[in-house]
Design a protein that fits this description.
Helices cover about 50% and strands about 15% of the residues. The protein has 10 helices and 6 strands. It has a 6-stranded parallel beta sheet with strand order 2-1-3-4-5-6, with helices on both faces. Helix 2 crosses helix 3, helix 4 crosses helix 6 and helix 7 crosses helix 9. It is globular, with a radius of gyration of 17 Å. The N terminus is likely disordered. It holds the Pfam family GerE. Keywords: DNA-binding, Transcription, Transcription regulation. This is DNA-binding NarL/FixJ family response regulator.
Length: about 200
């Protein structure tokens, strides 16, 4: 439970986004593994989480999805570079971000962060319209997964390699790769990055 003062000030920072002086940083963590980040945020219980979307796209999106699953009451503000594409912005929102700031200016982040901490949608200028337009896009039916496919998909989303997934599930790497290829065909996506985004967007991992 956060009072209004806290809701405007306490934040956990994931990665290295620009952090406004107006926010009180109560925790910092690198991006990933997503589950560990979500656990650290839950312990700190901030009013807001700032997630840096720089670097590997799937890492930031996996963290946002994990935060939403673990602590849905804590808003997440994703922070991306000014030249970030609209696909990344939409992926962040679908993963569970309350808002997205595409700026390196801490002063600009401050106003957006205040809105996000209050639970209101918060975006850099021009992004809200992009998000609203995407809402009217129909969602195709989601194919059913076997229990093993679900396990493999979850570990791929966490960022594990085929060899690491194989070790975790006591399978051969070739079997894991076969599962991944079936998932790519089943969801009609071109590669692992797209597979991770699909899984996050549709709440499959």
């Amino acid at each position: 439970m956060h009072d209004d003062q806290t809701a405007r000030s306490t934040v956990v920072v994931v990665g290295d986004p620009p952090v406004p002086a107006e926010l009180e940083v109560v925790g910092r963590t690198a991006r990933g593994p997503a589950g560990a980040v979500a656990a650290a945020v839950a312990r700190a219980d901030p009013a807001l989480v700032l997630v840096d979307l720089g670097g590997p796209r799937e890492a930031g999106l996996s963290v946002i999805a994990a935060l939403l699953a673990r602590s849905p009451q804590i808003p997440v503000l994703a922070v991306a570079a000014p030249d970030a594409d609209h696909v990344l912005v939409l992926d962040a929102v679908r993963a569970g971000a309350t808002g997205v700031a595409t700026t390196t200016d801490p002063a600009e982040v401050a106003g957006i962060a205040e809105a996000a901490a209050a639970g209101r949608p918060a975006f850099s200028p021009g992004l809200a319209a992009v998000v609203l337009e995407s809402v009217v896009t129909p969602t195709p039916a989601i194919p059913e997964l076997s229990p093993r496919e679900s396990e493999v998909l979850g570990l791929v989303v966490e960022g594990l390699t085929a060899k690491q997934v194989a070790a975790r599930l006591v399978l051969s790497p070739r079997t894991v790769e076969n599962h991944v290829q079936r998932l790519l065909r089943k969801f009609d996506v071109p590669g692992r990055g797209a597979l991770v985004r699909y899984a996050i967007e549709h709440g499959l991992a």
